[in-house]
Amino acid sequence: MKKTLLGSLITLAFCSASGTAAMIENGDFSTCDLTSWQTDSDGAAGNPADFTVTGAAPNCAANIYIDNTDAMANTLYQNLDLTASADSQLWLNYDFSVNSELTDQAPLTADYFAVYLNDGSGMTYDYTGNLGTFFGAPDINGEASYTGAFLLDDSFKNQTGWSIEFQLLSNVDMSPAWMTINSVSLNEVTADVSAPATFSIASLGLFLLGARRMNRSSKAGVA
């Protein structure tokens, strides 16, 4: 525990993160509509019945449904601004959940979902820049929540034509499933070292390091 704290303090002293430009618009759906987002149902304009926004401003969320209509795939997506400096990182933060009317279904029968980056040609990629999706294509077996962040590979920086896509896909169960997206954001994070803060944190780290060494010496003397 002490070792972890010490390492964290020293790391924080020399690399404090400074958040910056938002690269996804209306990612928290605070407008309580789908402003800046686009919808797709089986390759055509999204069916309004399959895309809704619930909640009250500013705490709204987007919902995608499947098996409410005849659509086999419903997608909510937005083009990305991937402009970034060479010394920065691109972090994708997400908070969403999925749910279904049926649970414990036989394999290959349940509705499922995918989250991925699209290069504009229809190819899907994960956060490492490899073909695929962020979570695979998991079955929706009742309620499940997904919250976290992905560090995008540097190869995405300053690329154009990319989008983030949330997709629900129908299977043979013909019973509704849905996804609720609370928020998604893409942020450029750069190293920002503040001299006074760095000095204070580094001093504390060095103090703990010295105290630990003195403690070791004391124990060695007693032995």
Commentary on this structure:
The chain has 223 residues and is α+β, with helices and mostly antiparallel strands. The protein folds into two domains: 1-16 and 193-223; 18-192, Galactose-binding domain-like (Jelly Rolls, Sandwich), CATH 2.60.120. The protein is 18% helix and 38% strand. The chain has two helices and twelve strands; from the N terminus they run αββββββββββββα. The strands form two sheets. Strands 1, 4, 5, 7, 10 and 12 form a six-stranded antiparallel β-sheet that branches. A six-stranded antiparallel β-sheet has the order 3-2-6-11-8-9, with no helix packed on it. β2 and β3 (44-45) form a beta hairpin.
Compact overview of the structure:
This is PEP-CTERM sorting domain-containing protein. By secondary structure, the protein is of the alpha+beta class.
